[in-house]
Amino acid sequence: MPTSASMTIDNAVPIISLRGVNKTYAGGFQALKNVDLDIKRGEIFALLGPNGAGKTTLIGIVCGIVNASSGTVIADGHDTVRDYRAARATIGLVPQELHTDAFESVWATIAFSRGLFGKPPNPAHLEKVLRDLSLWDKRGVKIMTLSGGMKRRVLIAKALAHEPSILFLDEPSAGVDVDLRHDMWRMVRELRENGTTIILTTHYIEEAEDMADRIGVINKGELIVVEDKDVLMRKLGKKQLTLTLRQPMTSIPVGLSAWSLALRDDGDTLVYSFDSQEEETGIAELLRALGEHGIEFKDLRSSESSLEDIFVSLVHRPKGAMV
């Protein structure tokens, strides 16, 4: 884990910086298109996007697994091409795939991983990592005998063995049990508190909403938005007022066209969507107008957009539309 000295570094300097990063594969498919991105030291950054959007390619380029077609990447002060070994030593990666040294023991695997990055033996650190991941009792067991969930824990332990300042989690919750998910997110919070920068991709958007400081959304190889989570939700979030009607409606009267209304549940429910940032919501005027049209309701409730709602709206936003 990072020392206290490492935590005094100026947080204004990004720990990861990508400039003009492009990737076109041999078959002509362009996986990344001119990506510029700065990731702050000590933050949890969630990278969201549909399948095939370019998330894993971007991670692979930062980690030195994939060669960019053009552009530069700096990881903790090191150019990932010109100073590959130093850059890679700052990074821990938990990949999607369960690649492990099947015939080795858990302890031998993580000890080897630490040595691979030139770090001297540190049994105390390795023990802490294994205990945090509920693997200590399995330290002498061959990996091939472990369940899928336990193998996922070993991958996390391997990524943390050399005490990286940057940790990538590529779909870490995919196919894991609830206990591991809780252990993992508890550890992620502890790592962040100790200064480690966490970058995660996830299909569980509620996890990103709960964990992340900032959100990046990538679609078709383009980074379409990067924003503080709270700012993004304020900027793009919509509130809804849902009214349960006393009598179902077949259509919305023309006199109510000034409001953004939709009928649902076979005409039993009227939904009004409005901008959560506007001072004047229009609710009072809408309720008066409903009364003037003889439309009665028996219940009403309000709700706010989730990060999932915002993600879907961004991915389906027309190209060039302003955020």
Describe the model.
- The protein is of the alpha/beta class.
- Among the domains are: 6-90 and 164-233, Rossmann fold; 238-304, Alpha-Beta Plaits (2-Layer Sandwich), CATH 3.30.70.
- It is 30% helix and 27% strand.
- The chain contains 10 helices and 14 strands.
- It has helices spanning 55-62, 84-89, 106-116, 123-132, 148-160, 178-193, 205-211, 229-236, 283-292, 307-315; strands at 16-24, 30-39, 44-48, 70-75, 78-79, 91-94, 166-170, 197-201, 214-219, 222-228, 238-245, 261-264, 269-275, 297-304.
- The strands form 3 sheets. It has a 6-stranded mixed beta sheet, sandwiched between helices. Strands 2-1-4-5 form a 4-stranded antiparallel beta sheet. It has a 4-stranded antiparallel beta sheet with strand order 12-13-11-14, with no helix packed on it.
- It is elongated, with a radius of gyration of 24 Å.
- The two termini are 37 Å apart.
- 32% of the residues are buried.
Record the SSE blueprint.
Elements: E1 16-24, E2 30-39, E3 44-48, H1 55-62, E4 70-75, E5 78-79, H2 84-89, E6 91-94, H3 106-116, H4 123-132, H5 148-160, E7 166-170, H6 178-193, E8 197-201, H7 205-211, E9 214-219, E10 222-228, H8 229-236, E11 238-245, E12 261-264, E13 269-275, H9 283-292, E14 297-304, H10 307-315
Parallel strand pairs: 3-8, 3-9, 6-7, 7-8
Antiparallel strand pairs: 1-2, 1-4, 4-5, 9-10, 11-13, 11-14, 12-13
Helix pairs in contact: 3-5
